Amino acid sequence: MDARFTDEQDEIRRALRELLHKRCGPEDVRAAVDRPEGYDPGLWTALGEQLGLPGLALPEAYGGTGCTSTEVVLAAEELGRVLAPTPFLATAVLAAPLLLALGTGAQRAELLPRIADGSLTAALAVPGTRLGTALALTDPPGGDWAGGGRAGGVQARHRGDRWRLYGEADQVLDGHSAGLLLVPAHTGGYARPRVLLYLVAGDADGVVRTRRTALDATRGQACVQLRDVPAELVGADEGSDIRPALAALGDTVAAVLAAEAVGAADRALERTVEYVKQREQFGRAIGSFQAVKHRLADVYVAVRAARSAAYYAAWATAHGEPVGALALAQALEALRTAAGEGIQLHGGIGFTWEHEAHLYFKRGAGDELLFGPGHRLRAHAAEAAGLFTGWEVAV
C-alpha cells in the first residue's frame, strides 16, 4: 500500500492554499461573515470556476471532477486552515451526495450541474438541533429526531398532486442563504411512520428564514420555518425512509469535518509558534523557555496524530470502514488544545475577542456543539462496534 499522495492530490492542495492565501486572510474572513450571505460570493465563484471545488466529488456527467473522498478531505483541510466561510460543507458535503444517491434522473440532471459550477447552493434542513443524531454520529440511526405523529419536527402531507411541509428546522448550516433546501420530513402518521426527503426552493412562499447568531460566525446557521410550503419528493419511492441514507452519509461528513479541524489546529499552532519566537520576556523570547517548548510539543503531537486519523478516515470511508466519528473526536480535541494554548501563550492580547486566536477556539467549540462532543462520538462508535458487548461491570 502506497500512502503517499498523488501529484494531482498535491496540486489540489497547493492551488487551493494559494488562492485562499490571496483572498481569505483574517480580515477577509471577518468581512465575509458580516455579509448577508455569511460568506464572500466572489470567493465561492472563484473556487468553483478556477478549482471546481463545489463539484469535487460529483461525477463528470454532472459537471463535477469525479474525485474521491481523499481529495475532498484535502480540500477541507485547506479551508479549515483559514476558517474560510463558504457553503462547501452544506452544499458539497451534505446536500449534493444525498441528491446524487437518492434523486431521480431528472432531479440529478437539473440540480447537480448547477451545484457543481457553484451557481446553486443547498442546505440540509434537519429538524430541531439534531444534526449529529441524524447523521448517526452521536446516536444510533433512526430515532425520533424528525418528529413523529402529528407534532414536532417537520411534517409532510400529500395534498392533491403536491406535497406540503410544515414545521421548523433550527441550526441549519447556511440555511439563510441557500438557494435549495433539502428537508427530511415525517409522514405517514402513526399508521405508517417514515421520514422522506423533500426539495424546497429557498425563496418559496411560506419559507421563513432567520439567520442565527452562532458561537462560530464562520459557520452560518439559520432557523428555517416551513408554513404549508410546496415541496418535491426526492426520488420516486414514497416508502423509502431517508434515515439509513443519512446515517450512511455521516461517516464521510465526519471525515471531512475532522480534516477541517486538523487544518484549523495546524494553523493555530503555526501562529502561536511564530508569536512565541518574537515575544520577549525577561530579555529573551518566550519560545526559548522550556515550559513553553513542552506545551507546544504536546500540541504538535496532538495535531500530527489527528491528521493521521483524518487521512486514514478518508481512505477507510471509501472501503466501508466506519472510523470517521473517531477521527472527528480526535481532531476536535486537537483543535481545542491548539486554540486554547494559542490564546494563553499570546498573553493579554490573546484574551481579546478581536484576536484571530478566538476564531479558531470558536470553530472548535462550535463544531463540538453541532457534531460532538468527543466523548459522545467515541461512546457511540464503541457501541456500534460492539466493543463492550457481553461485559459486566462490577459495582
What would you note in describing this structure?
The protein is an alpha+beta fold and 395 residues long. It folds into 3 domains: 7-89 and 97-120, Orthogonal Bundle (Butyryl-Coa Dehydrogenase, subunit A, domain 1), CATH 1.10.540; 123-241, Butyryl-CoA Dehydrogenase, subunit A, domain 2; 244-384, Butyryl-CoA Dehydrogenase, subunit A, domain 3, CATH 1.20.140. The chain has 12 helices and 9 strands. It has helices at 7-23, 26-33, 41-51, 69-81, 88-102, 105-116, 131-134, 243-278, 290-318, 324-345, 356-371, 374-384; strands at 122-124, 154-159, 162-173, 180-187, 194-201, 207-211, 221-233, 280-281, 284-285. The strands form 2 sheets. Strands 1, 2, 3, 4, 5, 6 and 7 form a 7-stranded mixed sheet that branches. It has a two-stranded antiparallel ribbon with strand order 8-9. A hairpin with a 2-residue loop joins strand 2 (154-159) and strand 3. The model has no long low-confidence stretch (mean pLDDT 89).
Summary tags:
Butyryl-CoA Dehydrogenase, subunit A, domain 2; 395 residues; oxidoreductase; FAD; seven-stranded mixed beta sheet; alpha+beta; Butyryl-CoA Dehydrogenase, subunit A, domain 3; 9 strands; oxidoreductase activity; 3 domains; Butyryl-Coa Dehydrogenase, subunit A, domain 1
